[in-house]
Amino acid sequence: MEHSSGNSMQELNDAIQMNPTDWIPYTVRGYEYAELGQYQLAIQDYDERIRLAGEYAPGIELAFTNRGLCYFELEQFQQAIDDCQKAVQLKPDYPQFYDNLGSIYQATGQ
After folding, report:
1. Domain locations in the chain as residue ranges
2. To 10 degrees, the CA torsion angle through 45, 47, 49, 53?
């Protein structure tokens, strides 16, 4: 996926400012921040997505796995493992979540 342009990021910021309880722009902006290597900002948006939508909302497992991958990039390995395990728990039939978790275990020697 291509990086968001400045205008697209501004549109996300505007959407959040207009409706701060809508979790969708936080999800998209979190993804965009992660793509730009701005992992701490991505984590903050995934935190807000999880808080607004609820820990068991449909599709929330993607926020957990994406946040876990951001933690991994920041070498915050236990948080990465915890989030990726949560994604597996929420959607145990999705193989990519196991791949993500396995990659973290392998990289950390666990």
Report:
1. 6-108
2. -170
Q: Summarize pLDDT for 23-49 with one digit per residue, the tens.
A: 999 999 999 999 999 999 999 999 999
Q: E-strand spans in 12-85?
A: none
Global pTM reads 0.89
Q: Where are the beta strands (DSSP E) in 8-97?
A: none
Rounded CA Rg of the chain:
14
Give the CATH superfamily of 6-108.
Tetratricopeptide repeat domain (1.25.40.10)
Do 88 and 101 touch, CB atoms closer than 8 A?
Answer: yes
Written as one letter, the residue type at 14 is: D
CA distance linking residue 110 with residue 56, whole number of Å: 28
